[in-house]
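Changelog note: in this version the structure field was regenerated for every chain. One regenerated record is shown below for reference.
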Amino acid sequence: MQKLIKNLFDAQRKHFRKGGKLERLYAFFESMETVFFAPARVTQLVPHIRDHLDVKRYMASVVFMLLPLLLFGMYNVGYQAYAAKQLNPGHFWIFWFGFKTVLPLVIVSYVVGFAWEILFSAIRGHEISEGLFVTAMLFPLTLPPTTPLWQAALGISFGVVIGKEVFGGTGRNFLNPALTGRAFLYFAYPSQMSGDAVWTALVNFKAGAVDVVSAATPLVVAAEAKVHGAVEQVLADAGYTFNTLFFGLYPASIGASSAFLCLIAAIVLMILGIASYRIILGDILGILVMGFIVNLTAGESSAAYLSLNPFYHLIIGGAAFGIVFMSTDPVSAPDLHISRWIYGFLVGVLTVVIRVFNPAYPEGIMLAILFMNVFAPLLDHMVISIRLRNRIPNV
């Protein structure tokens, strides 16, 4: 089978090489070939770097760790749909409904995203970046399950083109493309991206059409709590116990609700050296420290949300998902070790600040990461400048 596939690529290569009739599509041909075979090109001069973790394996590992969240998200979409109808048709039908609802969003994300990537690769004459495999998977997982397909296409287009390609492509963008597309949809179409009516998709069994139901998310419930010092109990009374929030079986973005799966992914990616443990631990530390500071400022006259247990900020909404998969983006995050600690810590601090003091943005983590993406190069510059000043001059 391997030999058959190789012969197929070898037979078609002449059409894509320089002078062939499909020369402008060589980037697409090369990207498909490297899915099956490692690139044949090697360095001609020293130094020769040998590393098992090339870009393709790097991105494939992230996509692999996202698959459990995608499958869980499909099940959760179906679970919430039938729970709203007070029905329990069985695990298969629950998953099947979620599969039918979520898969089109994933397909649109990949098809439209790769269309833009191929277009820019053909124009610039460079290879297609494997980073799009991750971006096109991350983007739909951050969406509500009721997102129209045309909005998903528009969002991934904005993220790829404006968030990455206008700056020169992968490696030159300073914003996370998936979050850029998600932020664009949030501000351009707030009624379809926020509110209580977008998190649970329903099937109208008579007409066979997708409908929606109003279901307040845990973040909204916590923000609207009135009893000081009892926000956790308010969440539990609404059905959002600690276990429910930790495992993620509640109305939320498609794949961003399970802190449990995000924790497993974080451990695996840190062991493999793919995700920076400095950023992840910095995020967690920032959330906890700022959460405790907010607790200290809470009083009887202040909003009850200020008294929420800081650990709840880690498991509510997409905080864990953002920490593991978004803030650790190797392109938009800082490169230096100290910078990564500072970057992660400030992402966590801003997440709590935005959540607690700006109810218009209940999630927080999205804007916090994008904001710190902008300052990531400055952090590296400051650290390097301090190191240069502290050097002992040569006499």
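Spot check on this record: The chain has a mean pLDDT of 84. Residues 91-124 form the longest helix (34 residues).
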